[in-house]
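Take a specimen:
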Amino acid sequence: MNLQFPFFLFIFLNYLYGETHFIFITGGSASGKTTLAKTLSRKLGETKTCYLSLDSYLDKRLQPESYFINGVPNFDHPSMINWPLLLEGIDLLRCGKAIDVPLYDF
C-alpha cells in the first residue's frame, strides 16, 4: 500500500450489499480531506459510514528524539503514527466489529 504520509483519512463503508468498503483520502494539511469525508458520509448515509482521521493515531511517544524540531514533535513524520493500532482497527472494521478510536490531544 503506497500512502502519502501522514495525511490520510479514510471512510469505512458498509453500503453496497452489506460488504465492507474503504475509501482512502490523501492530501496536505488543510486541503479539504475532512470536508470531503463528511460530505461523502452524509451523501452515503451516516448510519452506514464512519470516518477516521490519521491524526487520531498520532503518538509522540513513538517518535525518536531525532525527529523533533527545536523540541517540538514533527507531526509530518511517519514515525509519529501508531501503525499497529491503526492496522488493527482497520482489520476489525473490515470484519464488521466496532473499534475504540484513540483521542489525541495536540
